[in-house]
Automatic annotation (TrEMBL):
<dbReference type="InterPro" id="IPR047693">
    <property type="entry name" value="RNA-guided_IscB-like"/>
</dbReference>
<dbReference type="InterPro" id="IPR025938">
    <property type="entry name" value="RRXRR_dom"/>
</dbReference>
<dbReference type="Pfam" id="PF14239">
    <property type="entry name" value="RRXRR"/>
</dbReference>
<dbReference type="GO" id="GO:0003676">
    <property type="term" value="F:nucleic acid binding"/>
</dbReference>
<keyword id="KW-0255">Endonuclease</keyword>
<protein>
    <submittedName>
        <fullName>5-methylcytosine-specific restriction endonuclease McrA</fullName>
    </submittedName>
</protein>
<dbReference type="InterPro" id="IPR052892">
    <property type="entry name" value="NA-targeting_endonuclease"/>
</dbReference>
<feature type="domain" description="HNH nuclease">
    <location>
        <begin position="104"/>
        <end position="155"/>
    </location>
</feature>
<keyword id="KW-0378">Hydrolase</keyword>
<dbReference type="InterPro" id="IPR003615">
    <property type="entry name" value="HNH_nuc"/>
</dbReference>
<dbReference type="Pfam" id="PF01844">
    <property type="entry name" value="HNH"/>
</dbReference>
<dbReference type="GO" id="GO:0004519">
    <property type="term" value="F:endonuclease activity"/>
</dbReference>
<keyword id="KW-0540">Nuclease</keyword>
<dbReference type="InterPro" id="IPR002711">
    <property type="entry name" value="HNH"/>
</dbReference>
<dbReference type="GO" id="GO:0008270">
    <property type="term" value="F:zinc ion binding"/>
</dbReference>
Length: 352
């Protein structure tokens, strides 16, 4: 099963709302006064687009617990072990000196350097881990001194200082040195969300086993499994063996349950129409799954999909083939109440 979140939609709508308010203030129009100084955020606060991921996942886990006897949860709490990367010589934990250490480092570097050579920006080629300041000249194994280099650049650079190797390309030199100290902001947001999800999971009373992205990749390589989201989830945490994986998956896409706003705005942020207060029209609500059988007229046929209600009683139905407009409510039959999710089955990408 794969959950498709709508964090991007939430982020874009919040950005649009902020833009509307900013324009009204700058143009000296009627606006709500800013309230930046009189609001506080509780401990552990997450942005709405990130909190949605936690809430959506917990909602789906609650449903799965009602449908199946779940005895334990395995969660990938971090993409990589940051403490291990910053202190590669730390002792006391067995896997830090084993094969898993290399997977943690590679996962971090691939994400940080965007799967490209730091010196020539080549992508889609084999990449080696390179020391920015060579170890033979006093460079360390800290993650801030590591980068990715294609085979050609790695061999040409050798043990030269980076200032000598990139002497004729000062812009590339400045970029590499700056990126070496740049943290992974996106990875930090993902890690924060995963920690919040872990805390929420521990509150369910189920045993929660944690792992890292490096361990997931290591498990997948041990079982010779292909790469995909669902198969990665199958390899999270402690794993003995995997005998097989599904060829079809259930995809649940978060669609939301509507909006609190009762108006629609124009391009300048001013209201252009008002929405009704009641969400149910003739027993149907937007998002319900319906089947409409129309026997006559231009829209004759059977239409199956999610409905968008109108107070006039003439509904729109979005089917797998497109949007069908103007279907009267008497032709509709309810199949499933809208629960904020849209379900479909997909072929496993690794099996296509």
């Amino acid at each position: 099963m794969e959950i498709m979140h709508r964090g991007g939609v939430i982020r874009d709508r919040l950005a649009a709302r902020a833009g509307y308010r900013r324009r009204r203030r700058s143009k000296n129009l009627r606006y709500r006064k800013p309230r930046f100084d009189n609001r506080t955020r509780p401990a552990g606060w997450l942005g709405p687009s990130l909190q949605h991921r936690v809430d959506g996942t917990m909602s789906m886990i609650g449903r799965l617990r009602r449908w199946a006897p779940i005895t334990a949860v395995h969660v990938e709490r971090v993409a990589f072990d940051a403490h291990l990367l910053q202190n590669p010589d730390v002792s006391g934990i067995g896997y830090q000196h084993g094969t898993l250490h290399g997977y943690e480092t590679r996962e971090y570097l691939l994400g940080k350097w965007r799967h490209r050579c730091a010196y020539c920006s080549a992508s889609g080629v084999p990449l080696n881990i390179d020391h920015i300041h060579p170890r033979s000249r006093g460079g360390s194994d800290r993650i801030s001194n590591l980068t990715l280099a294609c085979i050609a650049c790695n061999q040409i650079k050798g043990n030269q200082p980076i200032e000598v190797f990139l002497a004729e390309r000062p812009k590339v030199l400045a970029t590499v040195l700056a990126d070496a100290k740049r943290p992974l902001h996106n990875a930090a947001a993902v890690s924060t969300t995963r920690w919040a999800l872990w805390r929420a999971l521990t509150g369910t009373g189920l045993p929660v086993h944690v792992g890292s992205g490096g361990r997931t990749k290591w498990n997948r390589h041990r079982t010779a499994a292909p790469k995909s989201h669902t198969i990665d989830a199958l390899h999270v945490g402690r794993l003995g063996t995997v005998t097989g994986w599904p060829h079809r998956i259930l995809a649940a896409a978060a669609t939301g349950r509507g909006a609190y706003s009762r108006t629609r705005t124009d391009r300048y942020g001013f209201p252009r129409l008002r929405l009704p207060r009641t969400k149910h029209v003739h027993g149907y609500a937007t998002g319900d799954l319906v089947r409409a059988v129309v026997s006559t007229g231009l829209k004759r046929g059977t239409h199956l999909g999610r409905v968008a209600v109108r107070t006039t009683g003439s509904f729109n139905i979005r089917t797998r083939y497109g949007l069908v407009q103007g279907i009267h409510h008497r032709h509709c039959r309810l199949l499933q109440r809208g629960d904020g999710w849209a379900y479909t089955t997909l072929l496993e990408t690794s099996c296509v």
